[in-house]
Amino acid sequence: xxxxxxxxxxxxxxxxxxxxxxxxxxxxxxxxxxxxxxxxxxxxxxxxxxxxxxxxxxxxxxxxxxxxxxxxxxxxxxxxxxxxxxxxxxxxxxxxxxxxxxxxxxxxxxxxxxxxxxxxxxxxxxxxxxxxxxxxxxxxxxxxxxxxxxxxxxxxxxxxxxxxxxxxxxxxxxxxxxxxxxxxxxxxxxxxxxxxxxxxxxxxxxxxxxxxxxxxxxxxxxxxxxxxxxxxxxxxxxxxxxxxxxxxxxxxxxxxxxxxxxxxxxxxxxxxxxxxxxxxxxxxxxxxxxxxxxxxxxxxxxxxxxxxxxxxxxxxxxxxxxxxxxxxxxxxxxxxxxxxxxxxxxxxxxxxxxxxxxxxxxxxxxxxxxxxxxxxxxxxxxxxxxxxxxxxxxxxxxxxxxxxxxxxxxxxxxxxxxxxxxxxxxxxxxxxxxxxxxxxxxxxxxxxxxxxxxxxxxxxxxxxxxxxxxxxxxxxxxxxxxxxxxxxxxxxxxxxxxxxxxxxxxxxxxxxxxxxxxxxxxxxxxxxxxxxxxxxxxxxxxx
Length: 543
Ligand code: NAP
Hints:
By secondary structure, the chain is α/β, with parallel strands linked by helices.
């Protein structure tokens, strides 16, 4: 007998847990499927040494559950991955979510049945499941990618990707270790494993602007303050363009004296992490000259911290400016290059030519290694959705739809041709601390599906016009930022530039999380007008 539910959610990370809780609250029979053997999503998969949040504990958590707020205690300002994983397990237990979560259940495809207005979800090694609503909570940076380097499979030593780090860890003590990839993942790994390994060869193609931070302990007073102010903190984060509980800066980097600018940069550098990016000036993301001033400040910091001038110079990005890549928070990244056995190899001037059974060849020089680590990133935002067959009306997959028509969604929530399919953090949702749009998105979905039931609406489906509008709005706002010009130079994942052959498009909405929420509210207040199906097949697809 076919197992039927009201809703099937794919993914048991932050998104899946929030959605399950909110759909249960309105009485929808919901099941969550996840390929991994535990809840936690990205925090279960990414268990590499040094993994931790780049957002601070106070706004990197849900605010919707009084029990969770009152009973969970954070210990670090930037919680380690293991702590976030423990938090998500706590949420799953405290909200009694596990009874509706099916682990080690890999979804292979999901097919819409037009006559029945249902989705059939096919899983690896089990019977198909059927539901009216299909919801993706598969995460935005989950489809890990390896570089296209000749000989990659020939390496005879241990080879690991940060996104598939072995559960029992990797013994790196005293070994010759190589690392390819210096985005937010690689830069967290460097200071953590640097002191343990025998020799450390860090292959750098493009340097990053790392904003260093300290990781203080969260005290009992801090937690009491958080519990007293949770709603205000959450509201602040929800009203901030990037979903952080910070005051957006009010003036331009170009309108103050050099001395005052230095003081402000210095102050926010000392506060650490995203404070620097968000609280110094209001135009570091929108004005190239301002972003270049921030770049120069960080380059000077690198020269101060790193003792060897040649290494400091190599670590300083020169081909693009601040915000051209997603800015990572560092914890002793630059200091790690002061260790004698840590060696930075520039692969921009002389590229990696091959991976051999014994190591990595750069030009004609071979670096012999016992362990090779890839922190080479993800097929971001769309990768997880196009990696499985999500088959909508007329038998068209989401992959084909986007290949033929370009990236299309309505607010990153729905796609024309895919009725009653919803995405948490779909492509074209905000570039943000993601817990905020996840929670607000789950609450939006709860209200939408309750409204559908109350109004006898059977089908939600984004209109073609709404997709065109959102594609234009995403491109327009994105192109007004330095993330466009600088991101192209830096081959940023948010433009799809990090995946060979992926069409360039803003994969995230750069117009601000608070603006995005305004549009979501407008859609709701309109009675979901642009999501009530006009049942026609896009011309591009019917031909
Ligand atoms: P990433 O930012 O895409 O960085 C990938 C790195 O791999 C880059 O340094 C890239 O070099 C390098 N690379 C890729 N292919 C290469 C090749 N063929 N040869 C040499 N180098 C190559 O990936 P990530 O570090 O995993 O981070 C992705 C995103 O995940 C982050 O931006 C962030 O949003 C999220 N994340 C968040 C946290 C956190 O919040 N704590 C932690 C980790 C990740 P090039 O720059 O030269 O292309």
